[in-house]
Each structure stands twice: as structure tokens, then as C-alpha cells.
Automatic annotation (TrEMBL):
This is Dehydrogenase. Residues 131-268 form the GFO/IDH/MocA-like oxidoreductase domain. Residues 4-122 form the Gfo/Idh/MocA-like oxidoreductase N-terminal domain. Transmembrane segments: none annotated. One of its GO terms (molecular function) is nucleotide binding.
Length: 347
């Protein structure tokens, strides 16, 4: 039975390519409303996916839905989420949570006041490797995490479409767009400890060059306002260290997407999933040869969101943890700007 009416704000690539099709697999959900600043795009999405109504005013749409999917550029995440939560509407917001921590806190405050669901689409948490890694780590197999190495590296793949290189609309580049996923996953896997200090650097040298080789379209240096490469050293409250590198355009042999965790009793790599241990006088690495068949991450994410809205689950990606991710990214940008490390205040 369809009990949950969902509205979509931002009928772009990720809404049409991932979320709306995923919601079609959720029995309790019906996507009934869509709105986009570009009304034609909303109309097209409505026709393609058989969505009942196109709105031009967010308040009107909020009056007629139970939950809002926010898939606009990052600048509009926080204002739309706050407006929706204040109207008593649940929110699934695309990543990153917002442009900065101030906005994240406003979103959390609105969620706390309204009692409605607020969750961020950090979908890597729903991948089967990630879920298996979480089970292994939570079982105590690798002990306490010590050093967490994250690589979210693309060789020459700067998005040449959309608004990804517009600082005002997105708040940053490779880190806030791509690195945030692996950062979120690594923090969640290792127990969501608070960040306390961040030292970061950012670069845009490659994208500012003329005639770049880029696999994902053409980049215009004149309108390229963000970083294409970032590196950071992050201290966590539990004593662990995160070493992060992320890029859209690195000079490396091939793309690399990994999280590697060294713990007190063993180590674990994600993508591919592998356990590294020293036991009975030998060093051994365990490759995972089978994992339970699970649905695609986007369908799991959509089903989980519906379950949260209906009161059967609590969000896997809770907004307090998403705030940590945003506070690290904000500190990387600040650290890169001022050329020294940034202390993150305890609250
Ligand atoms: N989870 C992921 O892996 C993933 C991948 C890509 C994008 N995203 C995120 O999804 C969001 C959208 O990305 P996209 O690739 O779909 O971009 P897009 O440019 O294809 O779509 C964005 C849409 O929002 C509309 N829009 C802009 N301002 C608006 C406003 N104020 N109100 C309503 N609509 C507005 C645009 O007209 C456009 O149709 C971004 O936050 C991005 O970071 C996430």
C-alpha cells in the first residue's frame, strides 16, 4: 500500500538516474510531486516517471507530501531541508549535507524541533562491502582503529557538466563532491569519533592548465573555481588518525578508491574487502570470497528511508555524523587557506 508521498526538489541527473527509479522499488512509496527551478526539467521528469504534479512553489509542494528528496546543488540543501522540516515533512538530502557546519546545525535543529527524519544520501554505507566491513569491525576483529587511510582518487575525471566547479553553488570541488563519500564511510566504519584537528591542502593546478586531458568532458579554466585535489591529516577524539587524499584529476596510473584501516588487533581494507592479521606466529591476509546477495545500494537506501519515515527504523546516516564530515571538509578548506592546522571545537 502506498502510504508515503514523496516530492523531489531538483529534477537533475541524480534524481532521475538514481533516486526516482529506486523509489519505484519501494512498496510503501509513491513519488507524487516534483519541482525544479527550471520548470521544463520538472515537467520532463513528471512525464518520464509518471509523477502526478509539478510545483513551482516549495510551500505548496510541502503541503502535499510526507517526505522531500533534495537533489539541488549544495547551496540549496540547507534552506530547503529547514523549510521542509519546519513544515513537518521528512527529508532525504543528497550529499554533502550542506555548504558548511553552520547550515548543518540549522538542519539538525529543525529536525530535532520537528521530530521528523533527516538523513543524508551517503550511499556508500549501503554497499555490500561496506556493510560487511562494518560487521567485521563491530565484532572486534581488528581491535581499536589506529590509522585510517582514505583514497578517493580519479585520474583525469573532472565533471565537465552541471555546476560541480562553481564554488558558490557547490562550496568546493573534489573533496566536497567525491572525497566526502569515503570520509563518511571511514568515520562510520570506525565508530564515528569526533574530529578534533585538521591540517589540509588543496590544489587546482591541473584544471587551470590549457588543453587538459580530461575523460569527463571539457573544463573551462575561466569558470573553474574549486579544488581538483585535496589532502588532509585529521586527528579524531578516540586517538585515531585519518590520512585522506582525494582528487578528480590526479597524475596517477589509475583511479583508486580505498579505505585501509590499521587497528590494534588487525587491519581491514575495503574495496576490495580484505582482513590482514598476525596470528599463531604467521602473517595472514584473508580475502572475502563470498558476501550475501543484497539489493543495489540505491534501492536499500530508498527502502531504508521509507522505513525511517514510517517509524520502523532510525537513519543509518544520521545527521550528527554527517555534521562531522562537513566539519572536517570545512576545516580542510580553512587550513588550506590559512596554511596551518585547524582545531575543531568541542561542543
Ligand atoms: N550521491 C552521489 O553519488 C551524487 C552524485 C551526483 C550528485 N550528487 C549530489 O546531488 C545534487 C544534485 O546533483 P546532480 O548531479 O543531480 O546535478 P544536476 O545539475 O543534474 O541537477 C540539479 C537540478 O537542481 C535544479 N535546481 C537548481 N537550483 C534549484 C533550486 N533552487 N530549486 C529547485 N531546483 C533547483 C537544477 O535546475 C537541476 O535540474 C548535488 O548536491 C550533488 O552533490 C550526489
Amino acid at each position: 500500500m502506498k502510504t508515503l508521498k514523496i516530492g523531489v526538489l531538483g529534477a537533475g541527473e541524480i534524481a532521475k538516474g538514481r533516486h526516482i527509479p529506486a523509489f519505484r522499488h519501494v512498496e510503501e512509496v509513491s513519488v507524487t510531486a516534483v519541482m525544479d527551478i527550471n520548470e521544463e526539467r520538472a515537467q520532463e521528469a513528471a512525464e518520464k516517471f509518471d509523477i502526478e504534479r509539478v510545483y513551482t512553489d516549495l510551500n505548496d509542494m510541502l503541503e502535499n507530501i510526507d517526505a522531500l528528496l533534495i537533489t539541488t546543488p549544495n547551496k540549496y540543501h540547507a534552506p530547503a531541508a529547514v523549510q521542509a522540516l519546519n513544515a513537518g515533512v521528512h527529508v532525504l538530502c543528497e550529499k554533502p549535507m550542506a555548504l558548511n557546519t553552520k547550515e548543518c546545525k540549522e538542519m539538525i535543529e529543525a529536525a530535532e524541533k520537528s521530530g521528523k527524519v533527516l538523513t543524508i544520501a551517503y550511499h556508500y554505507r549501503f554497499m555490500k562491502e561496506a556493510r560487511a566491513a562494518k560487521r567485521i569491525i563491530d565484532s572486534g576483529e581488528i581491535g581499536e582503529p589506529l590509522v585510517i587511510r582514505i583514497k578517493a582518487m580519479r585520474r583525469r575525471k573532472v565533471p565537465g557538466w552541471g555546476v560541480f566547479t562553481n564554488r558558490g553553488l557547490q562550496g568546493g570541488g573534489a573533496l566536497i563532491d567525491y572525497g566526502c563519500h569515503l570520509l563518511d564511510l571511514a568515520l562510520w566504519l570506525t565508530g564515528s569519533s569526533k574530529p578534533t584537528e585538521v591540517s589540509g591542502t588543496t590544489y587546482n593546478n591541473l584544471s587551470m592548465q590549457k588543453d587538459q586531458v580530461n575523460e569527463w568532458g571539457t573544463i573551462n579554466p575561466a569558470t573553474f573555481e574549486v579544488e581538483d585535489h585535496a589532502a588532509a591529516f585529521i586527528r579524531l577524539e578516540n586517538g585515531a588518525t585519518v590520512i585522506l587524499e582525494t582528487s578528480w584529476a590526479a597524475n596517477i596510473p589509475e583511479d583508486e578508491e580505498t579505505i585501509s584501516i590499521s587497528g590494534t588487533k588487525g587491519g581491514l581494507d575495503v574495496f576490495p574487502l580484505r582482513l590482514n592479521k598476525a596470528e599463531n606466529g604467521v602473517l595472514l591476509n584473508t580475502d572475502i570470497t563470498w558476501m550475501p546477495e543484497e539489493e543495489p545500494f540505491e534501492i536499500l537506501q530508498a527502502k531504508h528511508f521509507a522505513a525511517c519515515c514510517l517509524g520502523f527504523a532510525v537513519p543509518l546516516a544520521n545527521p550528527y555524523e554527517s555534521l562531522y564530515v562537513s566539519s572536517i571538509m570545512e576545516s580542510v578548506y580553512e587550513s588550506a587557506k590559512v596554511g596551518r592546522s585547524i582545531q575543531i571545537k568541542r561542543e
